[in-house]
Specification:
single chain; 313 residues; TIM Barrel; 2 domains; 3-stranded parallel beta sheet; 13% strand; binds zinc ion
């Protein structure tokens, strides 16, 4: 019901002019019509410790009736297929792919260099296949390992592989400008300028929460921009208690709501959440705040349906 009709498109084209600004202008028009900002809980599920963590996470989701998208690493899924199927096979959850083994689909300043095109093909196809084989339902979304600061702009070869695989959305914009954090509250866009108008980019926002807790053992790094476009979102140090993490989360939730963004989704990892907060207090605090703000919880697949207009729900 929030899709842009042809008439709205023509109107927005006239109002906004044809060019790079049309998409953002359309987003503004859509936002003015869509009253509620959506909230997506999403998990990059990628290590052996994620299974025990997901058991706790799923319990909180069922209690709050909160949907989620699980971006599953194929290798992780293949290690425990029956367990993950039993745990996550629920209409509340979307299962998407986090590639097969977390190798880089393009160069990333922190995570390393891109692999070859043939290896990228395997990461994409094997990752999607693992989800579809285990869950026996279509996998339409992919979040590449680590993500990038410029999404997949300028990577037509990767986009072509995604098209061939039948991937309909990617969530690859996971960093701020110049590989900084946090990732800004960027809106969805499609890859029409790269020749792939049918593939959508649905970014992730905020911090990679594992870095807020030094779980990668990176220590101090040059992660933030100066001057900062979003200084309130930069903590004074590593998180010590779940409330510290929640206080950062709420900066993004509040800002997205106040500024009428179409959605907000933070970048979470089950293994890291459990290591820091085994009682999952941060999840409870965050979901309660989502309800308090009146955000509309959904999955990335639902957001994709809404922005692309492929399904009318
Ligand atoms: Zn990952």
């Amino acid at each position: 019901m929030h899709n842009i009709s042809r008439r709205d498109f023509i109107r927005s084209t006239v109002v906004c002019g044809i060019g790079a600004s049309v998409l953002s202008c359309q987003s503004n028009i859509r936002n003015s019509r869509q009253k509620k900002t959506r909230y997506i809980a999403a998990y990059d599920t990628e290590s052996p410790d994620c299974l025990a963590a997901c058991r706790k996470i799923v319990e909180v989701h069922r209690r709050f009736e909160m949907p989620a998208t699980f971006f599953m690493l194929g290798r992780t899924l293949d290690a425990n297929p029956a367990e993950y199927r039993e745990l996550l096979d629920d209409p509340l959850f979307e299962i998407a792919t986090h590639t097969y083994s977390h190798r880089m689909l393009r160069d990333n300043d922190f995570c390393g260099s891109a692999i070859s095109l043939e290896e990228k093909r395997k990461e994409i196809f094997k990752g999607k296949d693992a989800v579809e084989r285990v869950f026996e339902r279509p996998c339409i979304g992919l979040r590449p390992g680590c993500g990038f600061d410029n999404a997949l702009i300028g990577e037509p070869a990767v986009l072509e592989l995604l098209r061939q695989a039948g991937i309909q959305y990617v969530s690859s914009l996971l960093w701020g400008p110049d590989y900084s954090l946090p990732a800004m509250l960027r809106e969805p866009f499609n890859y029409k300028d790269e020749g792939f108008p049918e593939i959508w980019e649905l970014p992730g926002h905020g911090w990679h929460e594992n870095l807020l807790k030094d779980h990668n053992k990176w220590g101090p790094r040059r992660l933030t921009l100066w001057p900062s476009p979003f200084p309130e979102a930069i903590a004074g140090g590593f998180c010590k208690i779940p409330e510290d993490e929640f206080n950062i989360n709420r900066v993004f939730l509040d800002r997205a709501t106040e500024s009428g963004k179409s959605f907000v989704s933070l970048i979470w990892h089950p293994w890291s959440l459990d290591k820091f907060d085994p009682d999952m207090k941060m999840l409870e605090l965050t979901f309660a705040h989502v309800r308090r703000l009146g955000l509309e919880p959904c999955t990335y697949a639902r957001l994709y349906e809404s922005v692309s207009g492929v399904a009318k729900l």
